[in-house]
Amino acid sequence: MAVLIQSQSQAVSSLATINRQYVYLISAIAALGGVLFGFDLVIISGTVPFFTQFFRLDAFQTGWAVGCINLGAALGALLAGKLSDSLGRRRLLMLCAGLFALTGAGTGWAMSFPLFVGFRMLSGVAVGAAALVCPMYVAEISPATMRGRMVSFYQLSIVIGILLAYLSNYLLLNTGADNWRWMFSAQSAPSLLFFVGLFLVAESPRWLIRKGRHEEAGGVLTRIGGPDYAQAEAAQIQASFAQESREAVGDLFRKELWPIVFIGIVVAVFSQAVGQNSLFSYAPELFRQAGMGQDSAFLQSIIIGVINFLFTFVAIGTIDKLGRKKLLQYGSVLLGLDALALSAAFYWQLPGAWVLVFVLTFIAIYAATLGPVTWVALSELFPNRIRGNALALATLALWITNFFTTASFPIMKQHWGLPLTFGLHALLCFVYFLFVRLRMPETKGKSLEEIERELTRMPD
């Protein structure tokens, strides 16, 4: 069986009739979920001084207000694994788009702190579900030779959302006492665009074959790469499903699967623990602490978004050349060194210009390495038969980590100080480097079925 699949994989990779424009179109529309992901997570950075004053919050409540979206995202990740398998990738993304639109306005116009937190957590459900399904959908519909780039475009869409959030905050800064309400409400417009765009995309052929809808899957695959591609790719997918049994969540901890699942969880956790959340969610506050005025701090935040956007193209151009493992190793080491530089800058109270340089360097490194590679790795690591549950578990770990790092930052800043806080981030970066070097497999240029065979050593 392995020989047969290998020959089919070689046939697929040798085909030169891939309809790249169609793959780009599908990936671009699906990646709008990433725009909303980035926008929703970061829009709060500009609202912190205003809603904290309106609701009269202390440091603990401020951390809870900023971080609670991640608990909602964790719930969304848990639900999305099953829902993506039952409803399909496309239909679930439509539900997410509607939820994004509803909760953006709801958060913005909440009149009490509990209601604010409730809408923020509900918005997180949409974030968590979209974060799981979007890269999974793009990975499943993209040919192996394009998959790294296409899933990296999902990360690009996240950074576009982050940039739009910073820009929106800056433009709405001087709109009066309700400026923070309009900042949150701005999310509803791209949400509706995402919903409409999803009517133009096809369902994942892997999901269609799993559901026995082979004719529909063949139509999607034919449009992507022609009849020969469709036949070879469908054969690979069916062969991988033919050996599967229905996997429960508990099966993820079986001896032959747990090492793969564990790697995915560690990749997810460290992607959120290295320090970028402290910068993205509290950038204006950090710049103000470094001595910058309010308008200047908001403008510097836009520069963060621009740097994040530009350096994501570095990852897109190198991920299928250098590979996932090398980029994670380079990124973790460089981020650790930069976090040490930030720690030193705050310890010796260097001028704000130095803080800006180190912050922008950190964002550039993250955007070129860990940011996009994390989603590519998570979309590739898990076998077909457990992908939904395994991605849900890894993404759950990601959002719980995101919650603790985001919610704890105001408390650590107050009690430990910024030098020690960024020193801890540096230590975590170096630990991650060692893990990647020793345990992370390389997956570039391989079909999802080839990766599955290698990691699980499936019998012939």
Q: Which characteristics define this entry?
A:
Growth Hormone, Chain: A; 460 residues; sugar transport; membrane; disordered N terminus; 81% helix; mainly alpha
Provide an overview of this structure.
This protein has 460 residues and is mainly α. The protein has one domain (16-201, 243-456): Growth Hormone, Chain: A (Up-down Bundle). Helices cover 81% and strands 0% of the residues. It is built from 21 helices and no strands. Helix 3 (32-42) runs parallel beside helix 8. The protein is globular, with a radius of gyration of 22 Å. 56% of the residues are buried.
In short:
Helices cover 81% and strands 0% of the residues. The protein has 460 residues and is mostly helical.
Distance between the termini: 5 Å
CATH superfamily caption: MFS general substrate transporter like domains
> What is the correct CATH architecture?
Up-down Bundle
Q: Uncertain regions: pLDDT < 50 for 5+ in a row?
A: 1-11
Rounded to the nearest angstrom, the radius of gyration is 22 Å
What's the CATH class label?
A: Mainly Alpha
The tally of strands reads: 0
**Biggest sheet, in brief?**
none
Helix-strand pattern, N to C? HHHHHHHHHHHHHHHHHHHHH
Q: Report the helical percentage.
A: over 70%
Average predicted confidence as pLDDT: 85
What's the overall geometry? globular
User: Within the CATH hierarchy, at the fold level, what is the topology?
Assistant: Growth Hormone, Chain: A
Q: Indicate the proportion of strand residues.
A: under 5%
Query: How does the helix and strand content classify structurally?
Result: mainly alpha
Q: How many separate helices?
A: 21
Structural domains: how many: 1
Subcellular location: Cell membrane
InterPro entries: MFS_dom, MFS_sugar_transport-like, MFS_Sugar_Transporter, MFS_trans_sf, Sugar/inositol_transpt, Sugar_transporter_CS
Family: Belongs to the major facilitator superfamily. Sugar transporter (TC 2.A.1.1) family.
Membrane topology: Multi-pass membrane protein
